[in-house]
Amino acid sequence: MIYTVTLNPSLDYLVRTDALRPGALCRTQAEVLRPGGKGVIVSLMCAALGLPTRALGFIAGRTGALFASLLAETGVEYDFCRLEAGMTRINVKVTAHEQTELNGAGPAIPAAALERLAGSLDTLAAGDWLVLSGSVPADVPADTYARLLDRVKGRGVRTLVDAAGDALKNTLPCAPDLIKPSLAVLDDLVGGAPRTPAGIAACARELQRAGAQDILVPLGNGGAVLVPAAGDALFVPAPPLAAVQPVGANACMAAAWLYAQEHHLARPESLRFAMAASAAAAASDWLPDRTALESALAQTAQPETL
User: Fold this and answer.
1) What pLDDT is attached to residue 72?
2) What pLDDT score was predicted for residue 196?
3) Rounded to the nearest 5 degrees, what angle is found at the Cα of 190, between the Cα atoms of 186 and 194?
4) What are the phi and psi torsion angles at 235 (to 5°)?
5) Which DSSP string do the residues of 207-223 spell out, in sequence order?
6) Handedness of CA 84, 151, 7, 142 (dihedral sign)
7) DSSP conformation class of 3
8) List of the chain residues with pLDDT < 50
């Protein structure tokens, strides 16, 4: 089972318009409301790929109730802690030739609620995956993800962390099986990363010396770099697909990586499959179906050794 934790899920309100003109009336051409948050999207994509998954996290208020109802419609199993105060955030994402995002703050999460979430991880067993994905709210301790990893330590639970700043840095001594820092996050952690695949891989090795195992660095339309705990680093270019919108592309990369690991694919094929899923998501209005993913995979080159 793949368990995803999203501390600050969202209702994603995606709209499309010809032009975004500040201070002027802008009419939309299309709009849709979907359950969001990185971990939630990982669960959605895992389910689409046929992997058993359960989404965990926090919801609050009427927006939380709507979030839960929308997630229930997808068929994804979930178990969110309901908070007594506040509301699940709404993120507005406007596409007008380029995308502009306005992300809400989300509800305050008390210590007792965090402890309830941690307790829900006690059922995880050997072979399960724990995915900690997305931002840590400002009022939540920066070592929260590290504490959740400690909660499952020694039980054979495999772990994936997709976070930024101190929330990610604090998990490195816990030796997560995979971390997935963006290039901007890698820059922040190592004080500036070169823009070549080999340079990125060398900087990622610094995080391995701090405890990380495999490291997957998405580069958007520049491809992706994989730095395994053992063996040579790999680079794969992005397939030549026109991007429609970027929402969920990196989360889909994580889900595809999980699929590859569950199906015992070798590291090069795992990287290639993850890159294809990310590109297919960016080229879709929403999460890619299996046909779109297979088409992207056919256009994705074999990774090269760095």
Assistant:
1) 96
2) 93
3) 70
4) -130, 135
5) HHHTT--EEEEE-GGG-
6) positive
7) E
8) none
